[in-house]
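To: structure subgroup
Subject: Chain for Friday's discussion

All,

I'm putting the inputs and outputs inline so they're searchable in the archive.
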Amino acid sequence: MTASLLARTCAALLLACSATAGAQPPTETAGGLVADTVHALQGRLTFYARRLAGRPTASGERFDPEKMTMAHETLPFGTLVRVTNLRNLRSVVVRVNDRGAWSTDRIGDVSTAAARELGMLGHGVVRAELQVLSAGESMAPLR
């Protein structure tokens, strides 16, 4: 399966799972990635402890608290996601490189750098919105 076909398949699956009414079809960007600015999920978001720096993530990459990354339970590795803190409306774009959050009431975990930009370091847990911007390149096995 080519990367382009895989990206389109991921975007179609994400659209099918979206609860947003009046969803628009995904559009292809210049880089061949599929942008799906309709798929959004709201819920509670946390961030990684700095003490996890250097440990391997589920993608095999080492966790770097200063990179803009996140853990998500199902999105493919490499997926770009806009994360918005609903308390202060600050947002960042992060790349999925790990699996989690493992608590049933959480939608993901972000790196320390992303948490800092989101203004959530003093809160620990915030209500946030995740918006998929591009499908990941690899469909790594889910844990």
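Points worth raising on Friday:
Helices lie at 3-17, 112-118.
The chain has one domain: 3-134.

D.
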